[in-house]
Amino acid sequence: MPFQPFQLLQTPLPVVLTGLVFTALYAGVVLPAVWSRKPARRQAALKVLGQLLDTLRLRRRR
To answer: Which of 2, 25, 35, 50 yields a CA-CA distance of 20 to 30 A from 56?
Structure first.
């Protein structure tokens, strides 16, 4: 089957939005928690990451 470049444009909107949210969270929370030189920024990012993971865990238990 040959590669069809326009097939990527037919991706469902929820898949695209999920990818964008994941990328934004990764770039905005995970990376600063790991690579920031400032301890205050690392602690704040880790706190937000912990809150996000706790929220996901609570949703799974329901």
So the answer is: 35
